[in-house]
Amino acid sequence: MTIDWDEKKALLQEPNIAKVTQLCDELMERKPGSTVPYIDPVHDEDECRLVSLQGSPGKGTESGFVSHNNDDEAARRATQIYELAELDPRYVMPWNAYPWVREPGSPSALSVQEKTDGLRPFRQFLKINSRVSAIIAHGTDASAFLTLYEKTYHSALKNSGIKIYKATALGGRAFAVSEAKQEELLAKNVETYKDAMQRAGIQHL
After folding, report:
1. For residue 74, is it within any domain?
2. Which domain of life is it from (predicted)?
3. Which of 153, 154, 161 minimizes the C-alpha distance to 119?
4. Dihedral angle at the C-alpha atoms of 196, 199, 200, 201, nearest 10 degrees?
């Protein structure tokens, strides 16, 4: 399936994603010369109940978007999870702890400074998606980021009744294992999403 990214760009100001698009623009202004990939407009800021949190934008975001339609391993896995959990993308929204595209050759783990830089953007992101009831943290960076977030804002997530789920990263080393183990990891991820969906009262497709 080939995706027409220009067609998606034309949808970035639609009411279902406009505020998140504006946030991405503001973040780029905040760091002149930087890139923050936009969120795929299949997602919906009024309907969003789950946040799928990764560490930082991956290779597939060369499309200009954070999207499960991207051409990379993690995106393909996200697509599989949505399909297997029967999750309509409008109920979930992806985000990155560090939303800016990092310099090529950066260490794979986020630095404390990068995690810190991502705190305020994430807070703004959650204000826009005010109906979120669960965050699924993919990988150690995303988990560590949420711990820092809770510390910084004094358990803001727990106090808002948002449940944090820890899951494996969707690409890279986490899946550099045997095929049987990969299947197992994928199944675990699907279970996590199903649990979060049930908690949020999301109907299966």
Report:
1. yes
2. Bacteria
3. 153
4. 120
- Report the SS3 class of residue 136: strand
Is the predicted pLDDT of residue 29 greater than 80, yes or no?
yes
> 96: domain range?
5-102+109-200
Which residue's entry shows tokens 């669960």? 134
The whole-angstrom separation of Cα 166 and Cα 135 is 9
The burial class, CB within 10 Å (0-12 / 13-18 / 19+), for 79 is: middle
For 78-125, give the DSSP string.
Answer: HHHHHHHTT--GGGEEEEESS-SPPPTT--SSPPHHHHHHHHHHHHHH
Residue 185 has a CB neighbour count (10 Å cut-off) of 18
Domain count, the chain: 1
What CATH number does residue 185 fall under? 3.40.470.10
Looking at the domain assignment, is residue 29 inside a domain? yes
Structure confidence at residue 162 as a pLDDT band (50, 70, 90): very high
Torsion sign over Cα 2, 175, 111, 79: positive
